[in-house]
Structures are given as structure tokens and as C-alpha cells.
Amino acid sequence: MNRIILGNSHSPYFNLALEECLFNEQGDDGVTLYLWQNEHTVVIGRNQNAYRECRTRLLSEEGGNLARRTTGGGAVYHDLGNLNFSFIASKQNYNLKRQLSVIIDAVGSLGINACFTGRNDITTDDGAKFSGNAFLHNRTTSLQHGTLLLDVCMDRLGRYLAPSKEKLASKGVDSVRSRVVNLREKNPDVTVESMTAALISSFKAQYGETEVIRESDLDLSAVYEIEKRNASEAWCYGGTRPYDVVLSHRFSWGEVEIKLSTTGGSPRCTDISSDCMDVEFFEDVKAVFMSLENTCDNYKAELLAINDDRAAEIADWFATVL
């Protein structure tokens, strides 16, 4: 059965926990669309370094939340002018083209032409980004989720997010603020309520019979345990170990930052982070670099053993900078 779940909470830790439970429990039947909102939050990708992507002290001083999601990609700012969507389906029912059609048609019904571009953005017809998307796949289930900027506080978005100069240069812009737009700038009548109604209508037009469910009507017992993990400092910020060298490079598929300790002779990796969209691939890369057995002599061989062109790119770059 297709279903749309309407979130009630504004806590990123709860909302991301519910999304994870929906992903874990998704069966073979139908497609789930989950609509939710976070209040005053920066959400970073699964393999990102919080301190590099976000001005964490400023965010904390101003009462904001830092959260980490299970998908790859870059950091985003959420407030109640932002509406988030999550498509969850079995492998056989997951169809990115159909899912994007739901979003683009809903936006179009509000008088705004849009298209999917690059590796994960939805933009207006003049190229301004209003939605970033990220993805997660396991053996049986797939997830696409993203943001819809409706009336987000752009001042806070620009203050909290701190992408590298290399990332901005790759987008051809000077700041994170300059490449995004609120949909209310295109149509002043756009609201969270009107966008929610448009998404429900568009989803039903694409998928047919659909049950609309309130979050409060679900069994949430499993959600609360994941919520505790999501709110923990260990999950949000990750472990920190001493380092004295930082190496970074932007590839066509994402940016990689490696922290090394040279104490005791041969360099060893103490942390590696990325906004790579492919979580599973980067987990394999991370396992290579974080192995206590690895030194500069055998990183390349183990990276090449991953048998992925992106790993080979990392190996070639790392060999030149060591």
C-alpha cells in the first residue's frame, strides 16, 4: 500500500530516527513518502566532519541543533520555512524519475518551473537551487530524501554553513547563499501548507491509491532508541584523535579530507571525511584509511582492491601528496 506520513515533531533527532525506522521496516509493497520539518538545525552528511562543514560554536550559541543523517552528501540548514521529503521503497519499486516527478509536478502546480540537475539538486528554470537530495541503498530498500526551501532564513543559512572554497568554486559561485532560492521569492503564495497539499496531490496522481497517516498514529517505540543515538555527541560530532597534517582534495564526485598523525614516523590516518553521495563506497574507503595496519606503503594497494575508479583517484592523489 502506498502511504504518505505527515510528521508532527520539529526535532531533527526524532525525525531522522523515524525516517530510519521507516527505511528499516519498508516492505516490498508500495512507496512511502514522509514529509517532515526540523527547527533551527544544520544536518550534515554521514561521512562529513562537523567542524569543517558548520560553524558549530555559532550554531550552539544561537540555540541551534547539529544533526547527522545516514545518507551522504553535504551540509544543509533547516528551519520551519523548509519542508523535507523522504521517498522510501523496495528495490523493485524505487524509481528516481517517478519520485522526482512528484516534486517537480508539485512545484509546477504552484506556478514554478523546476528541473533536476547535477548530482543531487533541483533548481528553478533560471538555475537557482531550492532542493538538495541524498540517497541510501541497502540490499532490499532504497531512500531518496531532500529539502524544499520555501521561506528559510537565508541569513542563518549563510552564517552557519561553511563549505570549502573549492566546493563553491566547483559550483561557480562565491557563497552558499548565492546559489539557493526560497520558492516564496518565485511565488509569494507558497507556504508549507500549500506545498504539503501539492505534494500529496502529485504523489496520488503518480502512484494512485494512497493512505495518508499522521506520525502520531504510528508505533514509535523503535524510534526513541535511535533518537537517543542521533542526539549523542559521539554520533553528531564523531570521535576526535590527534593529528598534525590535513590534506584535502575535490574530485568530480565529492570532496575528501584526510587528517594524519606523523608522530612516530610513518603517517597514519586519524580521520577521513567526505560529502560523497555514495555512503557504502566511502565506508569502504574509510575502512582502508582507518585500519591500524595501514601505513603510507600499503594504502594504495588496498584502495585499488576496492575496484572502483573513485578509489583509484583517491589512491593516485594520496600518493602524490604524501
What's a concise summary of this model?
With 322 residues, this protein is α+β, with helices and mostly antiparallel strands.
Describe this structure in words.
With 322 residues, the protein is α+β, with helices and mostly antiparallel strands. The chain has twelve helices and 14 strands. The strands form three sheets. The chain has an eight-stranded mixed sheet with strand order 7-8-9-10-6-2-1-11, sandwiched between helices. Strands 4-3-5 form a three-stranded mixed sheet. A hairpin with a 3-residue loop joins strand 9 and strand 10. Helix 1 packs across helix 8 and helix 4 packs across helix 7. The longest helix is centred in the middle third of the chain and has 16 residues. The chain is globular, with a radius of gyration of 20 Å. About 5% of the residues have low confidence.
